[in-house]
Structure formats: C-alpha cells, structure tokens
Write a structure and sequence with these properties.
The chain is α/β, with parallel strands linked by helices. The chain has 16 helices and eight strands. The protein has a five-stranded mixed β-sheet with strand order 6-5-4-7-8, sandwiched between helices. The protein has a three-stranded antiparallel β-sheet with strand order 1-2-3, sandwiched between helices.
Length: about 400
C-alpha cells in the first residue's frame, strides 16, 4: 500500500510542462532540418559528400537561442567556411525571437501594456526576459502603419470632415514638451466613418492644421460639405484656406463648455442644461428664440456667458442646414472622444515619449485599432444628404 501511495501521479501542470518540452523539441528539430537544407544549398553538397559542384566547405556549428511561443530554444546553426552561417532565410540573420513573439509584444504594447510589463510577461510565459529597449525596437514596426495611413488615397467624396486635437508629452530637442496629436476622420457617401489622418505638431496652430489638410488634399480629399471642429483660430484659418467652400461647424459641446466656464460654479449645472436645450431646438429659428429667452432670464446675471453664446451661435448652428437625422452626429466632435480617451489611456502608461516618432507610431496604431470597428455598421444614412449646391443656396 505504501509503495502504491508513493507512486508519482502526473498532475495537469506536469503534463502541460511535458507537452511544452515536447513541442519545443519538435520545433528545434524542424528548424535544424531547415537550417541544414539551407547550408547544403550554400555549400553545394550534403554533409561528408564529395561533389564537383561544391562551392564551399562546412565549418562546424554554433548555438543560437530563439525565443518562441513555446519558450526559449537553443538551435545548432551550421555554418560554411566562406559563406557564413545558415539561418538568414529560415529565422533571419540577426533575429532572436520568432515573428509571433514580436507581433504579440507589439499588440500588447498598443493595447496598454508598458515595456516593463511585457518583459515580465515574456519571462513568466517563456522563461526569457525581454528588455524595454527590445520592446521599443519591435514597436518600430508600427512605422509601416503610419506610412500606410499617410499615403493611402482617399476614395470618393467625404461630405462630413471632423477635426480635433489631443495633447501629450514627448521629448523635443532634449526637453519634454507638450505636443499636439491632430486627428481627422470623415464620413463617406456610404455612411461609414473612416480614419483619414493622424499627425504630430509642435502645437495646435494654423501651420500644423494646414500641414494636415495639405496632406488630405494631396491624397484626394473631395466633396467636403461641412467641417466639424472646435473654435481654434488657427484651425479655422487653415480650413478657410484649404477648404474655402466648406462651412465650419463649431462643436456645440466645446461652445457649451466655454459658456459654462464663464459662470459661477453654483450656476454651471443649471446653465449647462439651458444652453444644451438651445442646440436641441427643432429649428434654427427656435434655437435663436431659446437663446433670447435664456438671455432675458438667467442670462441677465451672466453677461460674459451670454456674450460667449452670442458670439458662437452662428458657427455652432450650421448643422441645421443639413438633414435632421444627421444633427446629433455632426453638431459636435464627440465621435472622436472615445478615440482621444483611448489615446490618453495608452499614452499615460508610457509617460513622456523619447521622441515624436515614437508618439506618432503608437497613437496611429491605437487609432487604427479603435476605429477598426467603424466598418461594421453605418454611421449615417447619407441618402438623406442633399447636393452641395442645394445646401449652399438654402444657407444663403
């Protein structure tokens, strides 16, 4: 009985470990066979074989560690006397990790894991610690996403164009500066949203927005009937210069915040509800009436707030010239709020970036990841949209 009790009963963990070891062995054998075939092609003959077409001779092997999803594997890499070692075609000349590992690290980085966290995860799962610099080098592959987005031609008209910026810290000329991430997306005639551009500027200025709009025009931006953005003066000038025929819709939410910000703290909640009712009016005439009613009531004690609302009223109510079913989507830039939230969440985990290039790579990848779901459902029914000529005539 004692002997039976002392027998080792394999546990699930032991079985899992044995299987991983078995798979690592299988991967090692498969790679070494492939490396042997590569070297044979380099030398022109099999091992110990004498052939007239031999062009080189063997020169032993060396161990090379490769990190895979099964863990670390030590591979015997054969080499030739003149042609160097095999491996460039099979595992890459300088590669120390399988492509799957790099893809996993980059994906984890984009989704919010810090470089330090990724090192801990790889050590736990694969027995090898990956340094922060290694993760950063792997993340440079995101540069292809930046280039693809920057050069992608814009297909078809974009009736609605949305522009907004968010801010984050990056190293610039050896100093950490607050830089602007400028984002543009549009709604095409198919009713789907599409991410159009992400750029980094020294600040949110006319020059930085002008650079972004120049890029969009060069890629084929056309058919813009409305630009939704905040009241940034530089942005407005850039839009007038590059898209002179498109009216600029001031974001109602931004205007609401500006109006409320000029009121005493105890009145802000009440004022916010009243101002928002202005933009929920069924017509522009009714919105104007509600504004006058507000100014004659609570607004008598809030002259600064009422002046702000009056100044921004025309720019914030241009959405009334468009289909009523579109109003709740085009009167603000709230469609970008989730995207900016994800960018902030991700960049806060990094802190200050080492340079602007790393900022652009990460936020572009985050933006593409967040906006990937935009193709799943239609954002607006664009069949309701009238031609640009009709809209201009009605607005006049």
């Amino acid at each position: 009985m004692n002997e039976v009790a002392e027998l080792d009963v394999p546990t699930q963990e032991n079985i899992r470990t044995d299987l991983r070891a078995l798979f690592r062995g299988a991967v090692r054998v498969a790679l070494e066979v492939a490396l042997e075939d590569e070297l044979r092609a380099m030398v022109g003959a099999k091992k110990w074989e004498r052939q007239a077409q031999r062009v080189d001779s063997r020169n032993g092997t060396y161990l090379r560690r490769l990190i895979t999803t099964m863990g670390a594997i030590d591979i015997e890499v054969p080499r030739a006397r003149e042609g160097g070692s095999a491996g460039s075609a099979v595992i890459g000349r300088y590669r120390r990790r399988s492509a799957e590992i790099d893809d996993t690290m980059v994906s984890a980085y984009v989704h919010g894991a810090s470089t330090r966290d990724i090192g801990h995860v790889t050590e736990t799962l694969m027995g090898e610690h990956v340094s922060k610099s290694t993760v950063s080098r792997a993340a440079k592959a995101l540069g292809t996403k930046v280039e693809e987005l920057r050069k992608a031609p814009i297909q078809g008209p974009i009736p609605y164009l949305f522009l907004d910026a968010t801010f984050l810290d990056a190293r610039w000329a050896r100093e950490v500066e607050n830089v602007s991430a400028l984002v543009a997306y549009g709604v095409g005639l198919d009713g789907h949203r599409q991410l159009l551009a992400v750029t980094i500027g020294a600040e949110e200025s006319e020059a930085s927005w002008s650079d972004l709009l120049t890029q969009l025009n060069e890629r084929g931006l056309s058919g813009v009937q409305l630009v939704a953005a905040d009241a940034h003066a530089g942005l407005a000038k850039a839009v007038r210069h590059h898209l002179p025929e498109a009216p600029l819709q001031r974001c109602c939410v931004h205007l609401l915040r500006n109006v409320v910000g000029k009121a005493p703290q105890k009145l802000r909640a009440r004022l916010a509800k009243a101002v928002w009712q202005v933009f929920l009016a069924p017509s522009k005439a009714e919105a104007r009436r509600r504004t006058a009613e507000l100014a004659a009531g609570m607004g008598r004690h809030l002259p600064e707030s009422m002046a702000c609302l009056a100044d921004g009223f025309e720019a914030a109510t241009r959405f009334y010239a468009f289909p009523k079913a579109h109003w709740h989507r085009i009167r603000s830039t709230n469609g970008l709020e989730r995207l900016h939230g994800e960018i902030k969440r991700r960049t806060n985990a990094v802190g200050a970036f080492p340079d602007r290039g790393s900022v652009l790579r990460l936020i572009t990848a985050v933006a593409l990841n967040v906006t990937a779901i935009w193709t799943d459902r239609r954002y607006l029914d664009m069949s309701l949209l009238k031609s640009k000529e009709v809209i201009v005539a009605e607005a006049a």
